[in-house]
Amino acid sequence: MGVLFDWKLVFSQIPDILRYLPTTVELTLVATFIGYAIGLLLALVKIHRVPVLRQLAAFFISIIRGTPILVQLYITYYGIPLTLKYINLIHGTNYNINSIPPVIFAIIALGLNQSAFDSEIIRAAIQSVDNGQLEAARALGMTGGQVLRRVILPQAVTVALPSLGNSLIGLIKGTSLAFTVAVIDMTAQGRILAGRNFRYFEAYCSLAIIYWVITIALEKLFKYLEKRFSVPEEAPAAEKKVAGLIRAFRASRNAAPRDGLKLPEPEENV
Fold first, then answer.
1. Domain 18-253 belongs to what topology?
2. 10-residue stretch averages of pLDDT, the chain, 270 residues long
3. How would you classify residue 214: left for phi > 0, otherwise alpha for psi between -120 and 50, otherwise beta?
């Protein structure tokens, strides 16, 4: 009678699976960049209530958040080639659709999925910045881009970091579905190894160990970043002084002289 469960096989096939770790890392990093970039744009559109674009952004987020990532992968995998075939038919071009690597479809689907969730995280983080700081920055003559780059984003990143870390961990695990669109990643390699000896349970245990270790490493990294960028509870003297200037600036804007009431003239030095 054969062995029901082979512990040695679980650990011996981990190196073979890790050969495709770069593919998983590539999927994660590129999709994360796309998610952050598009998520920031969507967040700014919703915050500033840009006509038409705001409705389109809300519609896009609703679709992405309301459909499974597996369905989005299939739609991307079959939809993009179909769109390119239509373009070839209309414009008379002869683009070779079969030359597109499957990893491109997975990156697009994962990046768009990530952007819908990250946009809400980024929007909440941006709106958490005190309006008094924005007023003070504009009073100093900063442009909108400078206010966003120097005042809003540094503080918003600190607020959004824990949620963005959880989102990234979810994306790492979501890349395991890329094998459904012909991408050979760690999960696909595990299935290939299991098909040789029909030890599927051992193969999936190997994958579970690998993803678990990666997740623990990411959790440690984001905990370090949270401590690194966290704001101390007691602000230093310089920050307290800036806060006082902000309050004084806001008070000066709200305190306008009444009609018919003249302010006292300054006394002359004797």
1. MetI-like fold (1.10.3720)
2. 81 94 94 94 91 94 94 94 90 84 94 94 88 81 81 85 90 92 93 91 95 94 85 52 56 53 49
3. alpha
